[in-house]
Every structure is written in structure tokens, then in C-alpha cells.
Amino acid sequence: MENRVIELEIKMAYQDDLLQTLNDIIAKQQQQIDRLERVYNAMHERVDNLSSKIPEDASPQYELPPHY
User: Fold this and answer.
1) pTM of the predicted model as reported, rounded to 2 decimal places
2) Three-state DSSP state, 7
3) What is the SS3 assignment for 53?
4) CA–CA distance, 35 with 27 (Å, rounded to integer)
5) Are 33 and 41 in contact (CB under 8 A)?
6) What are the pLDDT digits (tens) for 9-29?
7) How far is 58 from 10, CA to CA, in rounded Å?
8) CA distances from residue 36 to 9, 13, 27, 33, 50 in whole angstroms, order as listed
9) Is 1 helix (H, G, I), strand (E, B) or coil?
10) What is the pLDDT of residue 60?
11) CB-based contacts of 62, cutoff 8 Å, min separation 6
């Protein structure tokens, strides 16, 4: 009976360690997602600012190809 309790405690310790490891991974991934969202938003804002500076009668180099 005592061996069974010890085995269960060992399994629980491994599961606690695994849970903490997975939690750390998720926290790092969320930080990466947050950083990528900030970069995306900055790039999106920059493209919007640049596209608003293109004159209405801009040369054809700014026109979309016909397949769009």
C-alpha cells in the first residue's frame, strides 16, 4: 500500500512539472503573439500612412494589376 502511495506521489510530481513547463511555453508564446501583433499594427499603420500620400492621379505604377 505504501509503495502505491509513493508511486502516485511520483506521478503527481511529474504531472506538476509538466504542467509548469507547458504553462511556461504558453506564456512565452503569448509574449511572441503580443510582439507580433505590435509589429503588424505598426506596419499596417505605416502602409496606411504611405498609401494616403499617393496622389489620386498617380502614375500607373501604383495601380493594381487587372487580376485583382
Assistant:
1) 0.65
2) helix
3) coil
4) 12
5) no
6) 999 999 999 999 999 999 999
7) 71
8) 40, 35, 14, 5, 21
9) coil
10) 58
11) 54
